[in-house]
Amino acid sequence: MAELQFREALRAAMTEEMERDENVFLMGEEVAEYNGAYKVSQGMLDQFGPKRIIDTPISENGFSGLGIGAAMMGLRPIIEFMTWNFAFVAFDQIVSNAAKMRYMSGGQLKVPIVFRGGNGAAGQLAATHSNSTEPFYANVPGLKIVAPSNPDDAKGLLKSAIRDDDPVLFMESELMFGMKGEVSDAVDYTIPIGEARIAREGDDLTIVAHSKSYWLAMEAAEELSKQGYEATVIDPRTIRPFPFDAVIDSVKKTNRLVIVDESQPFGGIASEVGFQIQQRAFDYLDAPVQRVTAKDVPAPYAKNLIEAWMPSVDDTIAAAKRALYVN
Fold first, then answer.
1. Global pTM?
2. Catalytic residue among 16, 29, 60, 172
């Protein structure tokens, strides 16, 4: 195992896949000469040259479409957005072309492409730069969505995403790029898309959280343990396909569920997971499913307001106690 930053784990995944398959290339704003807006692609231009590490103009719609066309012709592009907030400009390319081309061509055309970049709130970046975009894309059949919570998962899942024959949206928290963690250096290390990780086991309730919300859930679980309540924490790793079976198996043991999700509540990931669990495991629930989300208003700028807007450890503990009927 090697200790790597989250950004270094992403770089390792892309580098290994580019060394393994000459059809893989990286394209986006500042990925080459500047080494990436968050230095994820540092050194890759020197290693692979300008034909495979390609700087683009500020034109997400244009270079996303170029990548989709390249994928349809047999290449495997990685498209980097500085942030998924900017990818709204490329929304039509992603949801109308990448997602549906295989279906609309009767399977004659594949779109093996990865769109990746920073997602979610990252401090005082205000309303237009703080969106958790998972729910927008999770509503679209044909897309796979991955949201890792740690460097090891980032490497293993990104390698799987690059090899996938369907379009994969890879969402990375901007606040996690500097996070360090042990990363497997096993030869050809991959993690299958669609398999959850059981990060912590307890009998009293289940908490589900992805990406950086996972760390919030773990901190809440530790505090609950000090108060005598043991939680199972599940990191789904992928949003679509969502590993519902892992959550159902846990709820059958704990009978209570809290979902922590940084996106907003109406039509969000927590809403869908809550619905699916009540439909599939209603008889095992001893309390209503609880969710912890961002507040249902645009993200504010002021520091005290953005902190109040975001899901918190205290919010998660309070939701857990509502599920446990101990408030």
1. 0.96
2. 60
